[in-house]
Amino acid sequence: MAADPASRIVSVGGSVTEIVFAxxxxxxxxxxxxxxxxxxxxxxxxxxxxxxxxxxxxILAVNPDLIISEEGAGPHEVIELLNEAALPMVTIPPHGYxxxxxxxxxxxxxxxxxxxxxxxxxxxxxxGADLQAAMAEAGDVPPRKVLFVLSTQGGRIMAAGKNTAADxxxxxxxxxxVMGDFEGYKPVTxxxxxxxxxxxxxxxxxxxxxxxxxxxxxxxxxxxxxxPVAQTRAVVRIDGMLLTGFSVRTPExxxxxxxxxxxxxxxxxxxxxxxxxxxxxxxASQATVTTGAGAEPCSAGASGRCVVAVHDGWRVGGxxxxxxxxxxxYRGGGAGVARQGRAV
Length: 344
What we know:
Elements: E1 9-12, H1 14-22, E2 29-32, E3 49-50, E4 53-54, H2 56-61, E5 66-70, H3 76-84, E6 89-92, H4 99-113, H5 116-138, E7 145-151, E8 158-160, H6 165-172, E9 176-177, E10 185-187, H7 190-194, E11 201-206, H8 215-219, H9 229-232, E12 235-239, H10 240-244, H11 250-263, H12 267-277, E13 281-283, E14 296-297, E15 305-306, E16 320-324, E17 327-334, E18 337-340
Parallel strand pairs: 1-2, 1-5, 5-6, 7-9, 7-11, 11-12
Antiparallel strand pairs: 3-4, 7-8, 8-10, 13-18, 14-15, 16-17, 17-18
């Protein structure tokens, strides 16, 4: 006779806990670790300590019949003690930092919970439609050269290289990791940063209870003063678990990062924002549209053509010149081109 599925589960690792909730199996949780801070309902569960500094007393006090943990739970002595207590423990490996990794993690947690069909559905939803849509939206954003800063202890920047969660999320969001020539997280020299091809955006994790310093202190570091980011002051801080969890919220992380990087892009951001609003653009009968796709006659009676595209010469604002398909048109100030959308 098959044993009943575990009903008193301790979840260790924020990404695991998010998946348990998303699968609708949170009623089986009896405790969580400190990194499990989302969704808010998770905070109502007893806390068994940080993933790497678990409290055996707190774990055993909730009388669990299963622990599901991200890789890296510890310390080693605590894991040995839990093994001696014959407490089942399933470790969920990271699987990597791409779309397939998100789906594999969801599938692995569902396997541990013995809800395989629900896991397959959730993996298809998150890693399929949701994440693909987020990546497609990110593709509309001008690519940014991003430096992920883990810490600045001792006046030296600890940056993310390739094969890291930071590198993975930057790539999914359409960015370029300027430190992609080494693996892992490493201290980098001032020269390495200055010769990286131009840092346009600094990305950091926003972690509760940890003071990473102000933007002013960061941008004043000698390694950054000669880079473009020193002028644009483009520092982006995003919740650490959202950013690097590679779990059910990864589509949200992709959108958040892509939009944050675009906002730091000045005119490039405004062009991108308009491209999301724009349905068509109007050109005066004597004007030449130098870029565009899908041109068709304007159905609203304005002379010229409607063009579904973004024109590199557009400028925000401009004079009202009429309507097209029921929307206001503003002359963009370049080559007689007008855009359709909202005044900024």
